[in-house]
Design brief:
By secondary structure, this protein is α+β, with helices and mostly antiparallel strands. The chain contains 2 helices and 5 strands. Strands 1, 2, 3, 4 and 5 form a 5-stranded antiparallel sheet that branches.
Length: about 90
């Protein structure tokens, strides 16, 4: 059962997002196992993220790499909204 994770972070600017993406790639976690979709949304100068993951366990494993990187760029991590994916339509 796939899960959707919707994140809003305090102070997550587009420049910080780009730095995080670069650091994740350098850490070998640019395309982590179990993540099937990543969407970064920008609104009023802040980035919000929506991901779909195959399991909570795979998401948690990615967090071990992601969380220190976010902290390193000064992003305040908020709890994500998590929901079971009911349907995905592409196109």
């Amino acid at each position: 059962m796939a899960l959707g994770f919707y994140f809003t972070h305090g102070g997550f600017t587009p420049d910080k997002y780009d730095a995080v993406i670069k650091q994740l790639a350098e850490a070998g976690a640019g395309a982590p196992k179990g993540r099937s979709l990543h969407v970064a949304l920008e609104s009023d100068g802040a980035i919000q993220v929506f991901d779909t993951w195959e399991s909570q366990e795979e998401f948690d494993a990615f967090g071990k790499t992601l969380l220190p990187i976010l902290a390193g760029v000064g992003v305040e991590l908020n709890e994500p909204m998590v929901a079971r994916v009911h349907n995905v339509i592409q196109g």
